[in-house]
Amino acid sequence: MNAPAADPLLAHALNSIAVGSKSFASASRLFDPHTRRSAVLLYAWCRHCDDVIDGQQAGHDAVPLTPAEARQRLAELRAQTHDAYLGAPAQEPAFAALQDVQQRHGIHRQEALDLLEGFAMDVDERQYQTLEDTLQYCYHVAGVVGLMMARIMGTQQPQVLHRACDLGLAMQLTNIARDIIDDAKVGRCYLPRQWLDEFGLTPATLAQPQHRAAVAQMARRLVDHAEPYYASAEAGLAALPWRSAWAVASAGAVYRRIGIKVRAAGPQAWDTRTSTGKGEKLAALSAGLWTSLNRRLRRYPQRDPRLWTRPSSSPATGPDDGRATAP
After folding, report:
1. How confident is the model at residue 322 (pLDDT cuts 50, 70, 90)?
2. Torsions phi, psi of 89, nearest 5?
3. Sign of the alpha-carbon torsion through 12, 15, 21, 22
4. Neighbours of 110 (CB within 10 A)
5. Residue 237 burial by CB count (10 A; 0-12/13-18/19+): exposed, middle or buried?
6. Quick check: 168 pLDDT over 90?
7. Is the pLDDT of residue 310 over 90?
8. What is the dihedral of CA 298, 300, 301, 304, to 10 degrees?
9. How far apart are CA 167 and CA 165, in angstroms?
């Protein structure tokens, strides 16, 4: 979809995606034009906030910031987010994009702030003692994005929002497994400290080559824990418009494949960055189409109560009663 000359917000967002995420740019083409516009606007805001906190441009060329600088930038992002919700004229295109999306789709202010809280966890160098703590981080940096995307796709049902959040959790667990060593090299660790203690490791020793076998075991656990969240997310596809369901299912298939490859590679998983090739992405598109259509013919199961659930303070939480109605 080419950006019309009269839609500068869309032009800005498409440029942001083209530079920052070719995978998202490809997947977004599956959406209908109106959904795609809002999806890429939301991406542009998320990308901008991430870049500001990490001192980078479109996900690249990061410049280290002092903790004080990072906290100041985070405070500015929070203030700009509040202003966007108050209807104040936005100075940054990314916040004009957020304003547009929240007005069209009812994106709750707390959801936008929840994403910024995920960045705050990194700025504060939060430690994660248990898997539940890690999942809370996953919610803030990815689960809430899935939730906001579900609103863009036309659903406000709590049970479907839970499933959208589940996909974000699964994807972020996969990201953590893939990036354990890269994260450790820059002083970040999202693995539960309970797991590190079990293997006699610390965040400082995690990247040392002699510990690859232990790292591989922990990565396998993350991938295994992601699986029920991927499965739960699939069950929510029936409540989405078919093109949106296809896009979501395809994205899930790509990330799931990354986790499978990390698991299979064992200690060699971090010799090179694990990714999917063009052929695998095409296969994911086919698998996503089949999954999205197949889910429309199957019973909508109740969400597993053992799965981690986003904080009760988040808007639109509620019991998953096992029913789904297409919007």
Report:
1. very low
2. -55, 130
3. positive
4. 14
5. buried
6. yes
7. no
8. 130
9. 5
Q: Which residues contact 304 (CB under 8 A, 6 or more apart)?
A: 228, 232
**Burial (CB count within 10 angstroms: exposed 0-12, middle 13-18, buried 19+), residue 312:** exposed
Q: Which two tokens stand for residue 231?
A: 């499965």
**Max CA pair span of the chain:** 59
Average confidence (pLDDT) over 198-203: 98
Nearest to 174 by CA among 132, 131, 149, 138: 138
CA–CA separation, 300 and 323 (whole Å): 6
For 139, which DSSP code? Answer: I
Average pLDDT, the chain: 89
Distance CA 73, CA 43 (A): 19
Separation CA 57–CA 63 (nearest Å):
9
For residue 60, the SS3 value is strand
CA separation for the pair 180, 172 (Å, rounded):
12
Three-state DSSP state, 57: strand
> Can you tell me the distance from the alpha carbon of 152 to that of 219, in angstroms, rounded to the nearest whole number?
32
> Among the listed ranges 23-27, 132-136, 256-260, 278-282, which one has the minimum average pLDDT value?
23-27
pLDDT band at 20 (very low <50, low <70, confident <90, very high): low
Interatomic CA distance for residues 308 and 268, integer angstroms: 30
* Mean pLDDT confidence for 38-63: 81
CATH of the domain spanning 127-312: 1.10.600.10
Asked whether the predicted pLDDT for residue 63 surpasses 60, the reply is yes
Q: Say whether pLDDT at 54 is over 90.
A: no
pLDDT at 62: 58
What's the start-to-end Cα distance of the chain, in Å?
Answer: 24
Count CB-CB contacts under 10 A for residue 320: 24
In the chain, domain spans: 1-124, 127-312
- Of 68, 51, 81, 80, residue with least CA distance to 124: 68
